[in-house]
# Entry
Amino acid sequence: MKLDTNKVDDAVLALLYLGLHDGARAWKGFDWDAMDRLHERGFITNPRGKAKSVVFTEEGLERAERLLEELFGNES
# Structure
């Protein structure tokens, strides 16, 4: 199956928001290719390294919060 990587990246960014801690940090337990693409798009810091978390950029944090609500919000 061919995947729409933009949709995958949006879902990963939204799910990263669930692990938000210490301001704008999020645990980095997702697919490396998706994490690299999110970094290349300027939404998170470089995921490569020893740290167990990444830091959202301002734009990434705002987008992640919006996507979490769009993709997984319950209207009731």
Remarks:
- The chain has a mean pLDDT of 94.
- DSSP finds three helices and three strands in the chain.
- The CA atoms of residues 42 and 57 lie 7 Å apart.
- The radius of gyration is 12 Å.
